[in-house]
Amino acid sequence: MPIITIAARALPVEKKRELVRKITDLCCEAYGLPPETITVLIQEYPHENIGVAGRLIADREAPPP
Question: How many structural domains compose the chain?
Fold first, then answer.
């Protein structure tokens, strides 16, 4: 029973549905298991809680002062 955890920025619910469906399909193919055995967990982080290259994403997206 595979459990896949995704940690990323927030997505709209429509995109989450698509992501979970595609990941489930790939996992079923790779493991040869039925979809009922695949669990996908999504952990969302706001941009003020994600740093890349030494800067918060929220700061990178903010307009210059």
Answer: 1
We report the CATH number of the domain holding residue 29 as 3.30.429.10
Q: How far is CA 57 from CA 20, 22, 43, 48, 53, in A?
A: 24, 27, 17, 6, 9
Distance between CA atoms of residues 50 and 33, nearest Å = 34
Specify the pTM. Answer: 0.79
pLDDT digit string, tens, across residues 7-50: 999 999 999 999 999 999 999 999 999 999 999 999 999 999 99
| Residue range(s) defining the domain that contains residue 15 | 3-61
